[in-house]
Amino acid sequence: MSKADNPLNDPSKRAPETLLVHGGDKRTAFNETSEALFLTSGYSYPSSNHAERLFNNEIPGAHNYSRFANPTVDIFQERMALLEGAEAARGFASGMAAVTNAVMSQVKAGDHIVAAQALFGGCRFVVEDFMPRWGVSSTLVDGRDPENFARAMQPNTKVVFIETPTNPTLELVDIAAVADIAHAHGAKLIVDNVFATPLYQKPLQLGADLVTYSATKHIDGQGRVLGGVVLGSKELITGDVHTLLRQTGATLSAFNAWVLLKGLETLPLRVRQMTESAAKIAEVLGNHPKVNRVIYPHHKSHPQYDLAKRQMKAGSTLLAIDVKGGQEAAFKLSDSLAVILISNNLGDAKSIITHPRTTTHQRLTEEVRLETGVTPGLLRLSVGLEASDDLIADLLYGLDQI
Known about the structure:
- This protein is an alpha/beta fold and 402 residues long.
- The protein folds into two domains: 3-262, Aspartate Aminotransferase, domain 2, CATH 3.40.640.10; 268-400, Aspartate Aminotransferase, domain 1 (Alpha-Beta Complex).
- It has 14 helices and twelve strands.
- The protein has helices at 16-22, 48-55, 71-84, 95-104, 121-130, 146-152, 175-184, 197-200, 234-248, 254-285, 305-311, 326-335, 366-371, 388-400, and strands at 88-92, 112-116, 137-141, 157-163, 188-192, 210-214, 228-232, 291-295, 318-323, 341-342, 352-354, 378-382.
- It has a seven-stranded mixed beta sheet, sandwiched between helices. A five-stranded mixed beta sheet has the order 8-9-12-11-10.
- The chain is globular.
- The relative contact order is 0.12.
- The model has no long low-confidence stretch (mean pLDDT 96).
């Protein structure tokens, strides 16, 4: 048998770890091993007739301007689609650009959105403040009970938007149940899957129509570049999602796409170790006398533990710690840490702690923060690649200072 007969030529026969190294590869005549970086804004055409046919979309896979498509970005999009099990994907300049496109591309003036109230502050702004400016109303519900979505649906509801686990309180939303509700009313379900990562949760398999990621987080995983991605069916991605991207220009740069491709190669290794450490930290802090509660999806104390075990392959890399003593105690703990950094990023190789009440969720009213579980003593911890024993020792020292 020849190389051409090898079953592994079929990407569907490859494991995720293999896809993340080789998926979507398109080598040039130089047969480079690392993906080529195409830093070009435009492309030349062999003839005027070729240009005309290209702009009429009669030449598949060709490029006419890097705001629309770029060979390096193409590889990133294809690799992400293979990992996610999606028909197509589009890269964006940031995670918020991806979320904004996913939502805006599916609605028009007069439509209605139902969303979980526990959302990242920027995502909640898109739904609650930004979309109404364009005539799109919204209703926010407690996402922990699918029936809340059913009660909020209206005849003009076109989008249901959730993130699960939520940022920063790690609440869960039952994706399959909410997908059934959305589709029964003719609406699309959009899932922000950043916290779970594409390795541990597959929203499309559970019924979602579009999935979004801030590629800035685990996909890069080393604090270098911004990026985002929206994935789904070919019809949705090459239709409304691509059209809005093309016209608004929130394009992923070729350089950032190339860096993200390098990040994807090590994604399973990084996320696996980070997840193992996060689970250990949750166990150690779960019964600490200065901690009100530790929130981690695969910790048995999580109120939605059964759903977490059913919906997520693992608990992932983030946990929340609600310390006794409120904001003063939370600040004292954070300011005492020697290894863990204070920052608002997540999914990084470096462990990062943040106080959501005064950073990522400071724009919200205190009433809304408390309603969504963002208490004064809450800290969000993104676990990195440091030795778990060092991270535990660092946190225990910080708790001793309270």
